[in-house]
Write a structure and sequence with these properties.
heterodimer; A: 190 residues; alpha+beta; six-stranded antiparallel sheet; 6 helices; 6 strands; B: 180 residues; mainly alpha; 4 domains; 3 strands
């Protein structure tokens, strides 16, 4: 009987260990179905940071002798991944709203809660911020921005200090972003 | 007892013959002298053991050498163990002063071969100079406080780009929502 309890405990622990990462990945949005936007867009910014790349970036942030970098480093210490897609179009309303419905549908799934939404007639701007919590801990953030000539999706996996990140705009080593600039996503040659 | 028999075995001496017969079992027999099989096997075993010992010793030395090199190379850094692709030869128009701007590079300066009109003595000296590469000491730049690899810089830039976009979009909401 004792050995049976031991086996049961071991199997339960194994199950929990396997299930925890799967649960943590629920905040990961699927960007694979954005082909329509890709084909219509003039410029595309695509950033995927997770795993080893994220660890490297965090390591640099710790080493960099810059107080702003230290602040950002603290804000993203629990970050497990960040995925960004920005599509810029030549003409206004060149894309169809149904093109981004797939992402919005994913954000309707249980776990996601809309934190804020902004609607502005200027540039036909719509901004939605979603968050996902696992217990008391934030496990993900999603931002969907659609304007007349721009669509942007941001998916953050893991806890992140949203307020601090918003404050740090323009204070980080990279200057305040001009969204029209060319993407610098080319990997370095070894 | 006749001593002639004892001396050169001439004649007969029953007493001595009796003694010889009694001790014949211990007589020297050259043909029966053979090395026992067990003894030869021991010799072979010793040879094999010696060979094995030598092999182990050589392997141990090789291991020690490899470990020493592995420990020494990272400490010594690229200055003492220049990678082949790092070595470069100065073109004719380049001066040593300009080389000082290229850090961590062992510099080999080629010397022009003397003209054939020179004398044999000059020629020998010139050949010696040409054969021996002149190694210029390049001033080492002060070690950077935060040396980063290409991958680290790339990762950092990517993260900063992602965070900049995120921050920018979050501010869109912050600016619009009163009290935020």
């Amino acid at each position: 009987m004792t050995s049976f309890i031991k086996y049961l405990s071991a199997i339960t622990l194994l199950f929990l260990a396997a299930a925890t990462p799967a649960m943590a990945q629920d905040a990961h949005l699927r960007f694979e179905r954005l082909n329509q936007l890709e084909s219509k867009a003039r410029d595309i910014v695509e950033v995927n940071i997770d795993g080893k790349l994220l660890e490297l970036a965090k390591r640099v942030m710790v080493k960099v002798d810059d107080p702003n970098a230290k602040k950002v480093g603290q804000a993203i210490s629990g970050l497990r991944g960040i995925y960004v897609r920005v599509y810029n179009f030549e003409k206004e309303n060149e894309y169809d709203m149904t093109d981004i419905d797939d992402i919005r549908n994913q954000l309707q799934s249980p776990g996601w809660e809309r934190l804020a939404n902004v609607r502005s007639k200027k540039n036909n701007q719509k901004v939605d911020i979603y968050t996902m919590f696992t217990g008391d801990t934030m496990s993900g953030v999603a931002v969907v921005v659609s304007e007349s000539k721009t669509v942007a999706f941001i998916n953050v996996i893991g806890p992140i200090d949203i307020d601090l990140l918003a404050e740090m705009s323009g204070k980080m080593n990279i200057p305040r972003l001009e969204i029209e600039r060319d993407p610098s996503t080319a990997k370095p040659k070894n | 007892m006749k001593e002639d028999y004892l001396w050169d075995k001439t004649g007969t001496d029953p007493a001595i013959e009796k003694l010889e017969n009694a001790l014949s079992a211990f007589r020297f027999d050259e043909s029966s002298l053979q090395i026992p099989v067990s003894a030869s096997a021991q010799v072979e075993g010793r040879r094999y053991f010696k060979f094995l010992s030598f092999g182990f010793a050589a392997a141990a030395c090789a291991c020690v050498a490899i470990i020493s090199w592995a420990l020494w190379a990272p400490i010594a850094g690229p200055d003492t163990v220049p990678a082949p692709e790092q070595a470069f030869t100065l073109p004719a128009e380049e001066t040593l002063d300009s080389v000082e701007n290229k850090p961590n590079m062992p510099v080999t300066v080629g010397v022009k071969a003397p003209s054939p009109s020179r004398t044999a003595g000059h020629y020998k000296k010139a050949v010696k100079k040409a054969v021996r590469p002149v190694t210029a000491k390049v001033k080492k730049p002060a070690p950077a406080a935060q040396p980063f690899t290409k991958e680290e810089i790339y990762a950092y830039n990517q993260l900063m780009l992602a965070l900049s976009i995120t921050s920018d979009k979050l501010n869109l909401v912050k600016e619009k929502i009163p009290g935020e």
